[in-house]
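B., you asked whether I could sanity-check this one before it goes into the benchmark set. Here's the sequence:
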Amino acid sequence: MADNPHGKAHAAATPFFRRHVPPDPDALRAEIVRQRDLLTAARAGGEDAATLAALGNLGFALFMIGEEHEAAPLLDEALALARARGDRKTQIEALLGLGTARQYLGERELAQRLFDEGLALCAATGISEQEHFLLHHRGRCYVEQGRIGEARAAFEAALAIRKNLENKRYMNFTQAALDDIAKL
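And here's what the prediction gave me:
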């Protein structure tokens, strides 16, 4: 996932701070078509695992191209299905996606509750793959809420995890966010 390289300038043009910009929107649109087909087939076949995967993949792809109105109900459904199946890893992923979609819909308090639930589930289960994403997205949402101190703390926590993972790309995104909020 890439942040908008224009950072603060983008935040001034929209209510979103460092919103993800897909590097290849055409490829993402093609993936949306593919995921719609997979979802239709999975539902027709009564395949819960395949339905859950397609719901999540489609929801993420949709909000990445700015279609959060369509993404949110799909991610709501993915979250409900993951809970029903007891699939904690997918539940965390759905909380991240749904929180982001709700953030983009302007429902930032709800987004924060979803991010918080995801972080709590990471802590409770030891499933930590999405923790740095949850923290980074939470930080962006905090900036949009004018809660700069909380944003800084979330970004710093995300950056620490990303340093441990030695993921330069994600480290750079989070450091850029910290640099941008220092200018606010």
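One thing to flag: Residues 36 and 119 are 29 Å apart (CA to CA). Otherwise nothing jumped out at me.
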